[in-house]
Amino acid sequence: MTRTELIEQIREKRSFLCVGLDTDLNKIPQCIINEAKAKDGEDYVFRALCEFNALIIDATAPYCVAYKPNLAFYEAYGMDGILAFEATIYYLKEEYPNHFIIADAKRGDIGNTSKMYAKTFFEQYDVDALTVAPYMGEDSVTPFLGYDDKWVILLALTSNKGSHDFQLTEDKDGERLFEKVLKQSQQWGNDENMMYVVGATQGQMFEDIRKIVPNHFLLVPGVGAQGGSLEEVCKYGMNKDCGLLVNSSRGIIYASNGEDFAKVAAQKAQELQQQMDIELIKAGL
């Protein structure tokens, strides 16, 4: 998906919501597990993951522009999980081809390895974007940038407590590590193929980030269950094209563990979409 197409989807749907598909068998409703076991016995994992994801997607698709399956939640279940990830991507591409698909895998290694990671996600799975760790530098990132209409989403300033361990450390000139990542990486990609992960809990730090990358899209986790404020994110992080994909995972997909889970997920997604519409109007978009 191109930048122009993504912006069009945001304007058309009045939303910049990304739904995180962090699908955990220990958290999905028991009714899904029971149904899968009734059909497949002890080999129920694949069916349960796929069924839950499909119902969540169907319920939330009208209110979001993107989905972000996190690979860890699929790899944890071995081949059944990997096949469920593949099936979920296929379902999205067949049923909702206008939604932006992010594989949250946080890859990044020496050049030859990154080249294979890029082949996996951009050729085999054909997702729109992949999260990448920048710690190993340019040659670990550039293999992902050689695909038309595909995006690298670099970790910049994350929402977890441990982000302060490294990302906010300063060099002798007072430049923080996340600022160095933002500046240096612009020599590798541009705002047509590179985004940055910035946690919603970073608040006013978005101002500092926008001074360095005023036009890039930011993928923003941490709204909802992690306590980030959508209004604050928009106040400091929104640009002339919106420039935000705000992710919510647990706050939507696990809003209910009863048989009404899909209906409640839709309600939570719609609530966020309505708040986003207000923020877009305030920004003149």
Would you summarize the structure shown here?
The protein is of the alpha/beta class and 285 residues long. The protein is built from 13 helices and eight strands. The longest helix has 22 residues, at 261-282.
What topology does this entry show?
Blueprint: H1 3-13, E1 17-21, H2 30-40, H3 45-60, E2 66-69, H4 72-75, H5 78-95, E3 100-107, H6 111-124, E4 129-132, H7 138-141, E5 151-157, H8 163-166, H9 177-185, E6 194-198, H10 205-212, E7 218-220, H11 230-237, E8 244-248, H12 250-253, H13 261-282
Parallel strand pairs: 1-2, 1-8, 2-3, 3-4, 4-5, 5-6, 6-7, 7-8
Helix pairs in contact: 2-3, 3-5, 3-13
List keywords for this structure.
alpha/beta
